[in-house]
Amino acid sequence: MRVTIDHQPLAGITPAMLLWWFQHIGDSTTYGGKQIPGYLAWHPLDHIRWELARPASGGGVGEGARFRIVEAFDRRPEFYVDSTETVEKLDGAGIRLVRRLAGIQVFQLEHTWSACGQGTHYVSVLDLGARSPLLSPVNRYLRTRVFPERMARAWVVHNVEEVGVLEHLLPDVLRQRTDVDA
Q: In the CATH scheme, what is the code of domain 2-176?
């Protein structure tokens, strides 16, 4: 299963801002008058927890790091996700999170971005399942038990909401930081 979302351009957002965001997604920020993790401010209704399960080889967030992401799409317990993926790409053009089983990719979420006349063009692609026909039983299990179609539809809404909020949240988060030239 592959789901692609070509988002509306993010006004007032640059690719450098998005790279910074994903490098600092676990940092705290002021939201609603309270200090909370940026990840929770990003989608306060669906996001539950983010943690750096393993830092990159150079430390912190970067390629090779592992992100643990806990969320419930549409605030529904049946759409609860608690997963840990490896950051295989994180640069000025996007981020790619991957899960492999026995070395075979079974999940990939890639967000790519680029500057455009209206701000930043942002595309999200979720790819679930292995490419090998030999693994069709695994794919069937993933698509019926782990991430069924109803959950995929809820993920689309979730992703549109969280990406859409970036143009409102990110400039404010950056203004709060004294260590960043916003």
A: 3.30.530.20
